[in-house]
Design brief:
There is one protein chain. With 600 residues, the chain is α/β, with parallel strands linked by helices. Helices cover 36% and strands 22% of the residues. The chain contains 18 helices and 25 strands. Strands 3-2-4-1-10-9-11-15 form an 8-stranded antiparallel beta sheet, with helices on one face. A 7-stranded antiparallel beta sheet has the order 5-6-7-8-12-13-14, covered by helices on one side. Strands 17-16-18-19-20 form a 5-stranded parallel beta sheet, sandwiched between helices. A hairpin with a 5-residue loop joins strand 5 and strand 6. The protein binds 2-deoxy-2-amino glucitol-6-phosphate. The site of 2-deoxy-2-amino glucitol-6-phosphate has 14 residues, from helix 9.
Length: 600
């Protein structure tokens, strides 16, 4: 959460910083600011709200060849101008932006900063005040920066400028993502390569507990003990156009539309020239050797994990447990003798999942990350990675990453089954191809789904989603999608569970969305629908071709029973999109949320 950007070069830095922050807005968007250093000193612009508001605030007559910027998702202190970054030390000499959480900020305040007057309620301000304090003894910025960083516990990506030095941006990182981009006569700092793709595609990875001294024509990476490190840059594999909306009004709509393309890309990437499934041999060995799989994920990725469990157990016969990452450390299950951990994460940066990864690596267990961002923290720190190939996902509501995650889990399950000698009764790539075609058909039915949204969800305060078997897992995802972007209180339930308590909430007109794609539960889920209709619910049945009945509101094309989540989730995504749009919500940047949840 939070995005940081920095520029030091020959040209005016304003546009690089503002453009970079616009690209990082998915990481948090409740307040923002930039600091520009020029011959007249430091120029600070901060606002509560979006980057567009910051743009209006920044004085276009101020020119500076270096600066730092920040877009915030509040953790300590409400969104406000005072709490917005950059933060300055009391003397005004040091200015800093930070992404992460300083866990020991109260201790530092108590031990080192008694008597210092703080302007904000943030954990971040103690870092800049501490540097200033240490400078009074050290009289050396780099030394003070080193010493301050050594005292910090928690997660941080930090960029600091000293207003007496227009040659250097000081950078440090631990647990929060940070890259340094290389240019000709300039260098940049960013939480994500997307922020600065317009100016460079050459990047240096920065690892935890490293300090970087960024100048116009050099970048020096050091460990905390001062050892200088050599590192080769890599070329960012994203195209600047991948992160533009193009003619779409919203990223979410674009990303929903891209789902069939992503599935076809996955089909191509995971087959060899003979059309056979191909996976890294080390991943194959890990899947063979383990006696139980533990899937760790959050939010939508957790929901994809539930579908993945079903696929892996049914096809490959390996037992699977799925755990919400934020709970795993306290509610750690009894582990099997040879566990394999699979981390599912679109961003590869989710702090809750990373905390589990760190823990299980300390215990010596193998880990596989399934992510859309190779090179992300979860990818780097796991033993193996499977790439989603979905292309950048910008909208906070995850859509194409969810379906890509399920498709890659299907590939992993089918591959493991084949290696174990299980004869699959279907051709996986053919079935995924059918799914991609069904997705095309469904995306063409937006108008019909918009009408359905108007009829069922126009004014409601709440909604329920029910399903059985795989449909239950999709119900959870459908309800998350609806609530996170439209703010309709929506909950997903196993069809049979509603009558154990929640049915008490059903009133006249309460929308209940029921999924019917699984033949073996067709009649039982329809029975549950009758139960809620008898109590006044407005039932919206989404069934699959072959199982449909006359009153069903929407019928999805027929796909293989194991892969129905890939198709049935599409109408739920579209309904959520229109519900949010009709209510005037900010579809791509819903309130209180951020795309990449990098705090625990
Ligand atoms: C989904 O729409 C959400 N934005 C959220 O639940 C997300 O899936 C979750 O935060 C996990 O993110 P990750 O996949 O990047 O780890």
């Amino acid at each position: 959460m939070c995005g940081i950007v920095g520029y030091i070069g020959q040209n005016d830095s304003k546009e690089v910083l503002l453009n970079g922050l616009e690209k990082l807005e998915y990481r948090g968007y409740d307040s923002a600011g930039i600091a520009l250093l020029n011959e007249n000193g430091l120029n600070l612009f901060k606002v509560k709200g979006r980057i567009a508001t910051l743009r209006d605030k920044v004085d276009e007559n101020v020119h500076a060849t270096m600066g730092i910027g920040h877009t915030r998702w509040a953790t300590h202190g409400e969104p406000s101008v005072d709490n917005a970054h950059p933060h300055q030390s009391a003397s005004g000499r040091f200015t800093l932006v930070h992404n992460g959480v300083i866990e020991n900020y109260q201790d530092i305040k108590h031990d080192y900063l008694q008597g210092v007057e703080f302007k904000s309620e943030t954990d971040t301000e103690i870092v800049v005040q501490l540097i200033d304090k240490l400078y009074q003894e050290e009289q050396n910025t780099l030394e003070s920066f080193h010493k301050a960083i050594e005292l910090l516990n928690g997660s941080y990506a930090i960029a600091l400028i000293d207003n007496q030095d227009n040659e250097t941006i000081y950078v440090a990182k631990n647990k929060s993502p940070l890259l340094v981009g290389l240019g000709n006569g300039f260098n940049v700092v960013a939480s994500d390569a997307m922020a600065t793709l317009k100016v460079t595609n050459q990047y240096l990875e920065i690892h935890d507990k490293e300090i970087v001294i960024v100048k116009r024509d050099s970048v020096l990476i050091q460990t905390l003990d001062g050892t200088v490190l050599e590192r080769e840059p890599y070329t960012a594999q994203i195209d600047a156009s991948d992160i533009e909306k193009g003619t779409y009004p919203h990223f979410m709509l674009k990303e929903m539309d891209e789902q069939p393309i992503a599935i076809r890309k996955i089909i191509n990437e995971y087959q060899d020239e003979n059309g056979e499934l191909t996976l890294d041999e080390d991943i194959r060995a890990a899947m063979q050797e383990c006696d139980r799989i533990y899937i760790i994920a959050a939010g939508t990725s957790y929901h994809a994990g539930l579908v993945g469990k079903n696929l892996i157990e049914k096809l490959a016969g390996v037992p699977v447990e799925v755990h919400v990452s934020s709970e795993f450390s306290y509610n750690t299950p009894l582990l099997s003798e040879k566990p394999l951990f699979i981390f599912i994460s679109q961003s590869g940066e989710t702090a809750d999942s990373r905390a589990v990864l760190v823990k299980i690596k300390e215990m010596g267990y193998p880990a596989l990350t399934i992510t859309n961002v190779p090179g992300s923290t979860l990818s780097r720190e796991a033993d193996y990675t499977l790439h989603l190939y979905a292309g950048p996902e910008i909208a906070v509501a995850s859509t194409k990453a969810y379906t890509a995650q399920i498709a890659v889990l299907a590939i992993l399950a089918a591959d493991t089954a084949q290696i174990k000698g299980v004869d699959l009764e279907f051709d996986l790539f053919q079935e995924l191809g059918i799914v991609a075609n069904a997705m095309d058909v469904l995306m063409d039915q937006k108008e019909e789904l918009e009408q359905i949204t108007r009829s069922y969800l126009a004014t409601t305060r709440n909604a329920f989603f029910i399903g059985r078997s795989l449909d239950y897992y999709v119900s959870l995802e459908g309800s998350l999608k609806l609530k996170e972007i439209s703010y309709i209180q929506a909950e997903g339930f196993a069809g049979g569970e509603l009558k154990h308590g929640t049915i008490a909430l059903i009133e006249k007109g309460t929308p209940v969305v029921a999924l019917v794609t699984q033949e073996q539960v067709n009649y039982s889920i329809r029975g549950n629908v009758q139960e809620v209709v008898a109590r006044g619910a407005n039932a919206l049945i989404i069934s699959m071709k072959g199982l449909e009945q006359d009153d069903d509101a929407f019928v999805i094309p027929r796909v293989h029973e194991l892969f129905t989540p890939l198709a049935s989730v599409i109408p739920l995504q579209i309904i959520a999109y229109f519900a949010a749009l009709h209510r005037g919500c900010d579809v791509d940047k819903p309130r209180n949320l951020a795309k990449s949840v990098t705090v625990e």
